[in-house]
Design a protein that fits this description.
Shape: globular
Strand content: under 5%
Number of domains: 2
Mean pLDDT: 91
Helix content: over 70%
Distance between the termini: 29 Å
Radius of gyration: 18 Å
Order of helices and strands: HEEHHHHHHH
Structural class: mainly alpha
Number of strands: 2
Number of helices: 8
Low-confidence stretches: none
Largest sheet: 2 strands, antiparallel
Length: 195
């Protein structure tokens, strides 16, 4: 297995494992130390160490962690931990909102300073000229704020099943489609290095 394939497995594996475990355990209740826990809370409790281990393995494999990975792992531990400790699934459902608000706000701060913080973390992947980076950063900033709002609407108005499906497949599809929609920008603003 190549390093890039292994890295992808380590990033997507825990999310798919969460989904499969949730589907298998969602209708069950577990008695642990005299307290009843839903399948969602139990799966969340298992997801936290799984994500930590996969992140550490990814770090060992690549020798680096992105800021996004660090923020994500911190928020998973904090909000997943609150979900388990307080036996309240709402905390874990809020996590994507906070992740997208943090990233959207960071990009907005950079834009207000006339900079593309996105360029600092993605320039090796997508060589673009300065104008391209600024356009992509503005679009990504708006996209993150939109995802934060969408997550809030879904978890507050729909069932846990709907939210888990949205989190597992909807967000992944939205990110994929967002980057597909930027094809023209990538073509028009690619640098000589990218060409």
């Amino acid at each position: 297995m190549s390093k890039s394939t292994l890295k992808t497995v380590l990033e997507l594996g825990p999310i798919l494992a969460f989904f499969v475990a949730y589907v298998l355990l969602k209708d069950r209740t577990f008695e642990i130390a005299g307290t009843s826990y839903t399948g969602f809370v139990v799966v969340t409790a298992a997801f936290i160490p799984l994500l930590i281990v996969s992140t550490l393995l990814s770090w060992k494999l690549t020798g680096e962690l992105s800021r996004m990975q660090v923020v994500t792992i911190v928020l998973v531990v904090v909000f997943g931990g609150l979900t388990v400790w307080l036996n309240d699934e709402r905390f874990f459902k809020m996590k994507p909102t906070l992740i997208y608000l943090i990233f959207g706000t960071l990009l907005l701060v950079g834009l207000l300073r006339g900079q593309s913080y996105l360029r600092a973390v993605m320039s090796g992947v997508m060589p673009l000229d300065q104008e391209g980076w600024m356009k992509l950063t503005r679009r990504m900033c708006a996209f993150f704020f939109g995802l934060a709002a969408l997550n809030e609407i879904i978890w507050r108005t729909m069932s846990t099943d709907a939210w888990v499906n949205f989190k597992t497949f909807g967000l992944t599809a939205a990110i994929f489609l967002f980057f597909i929609a930027q094809g023209r920008l990538f073509r028009e603003h690619a640098t000589d290095e990218a060409e």
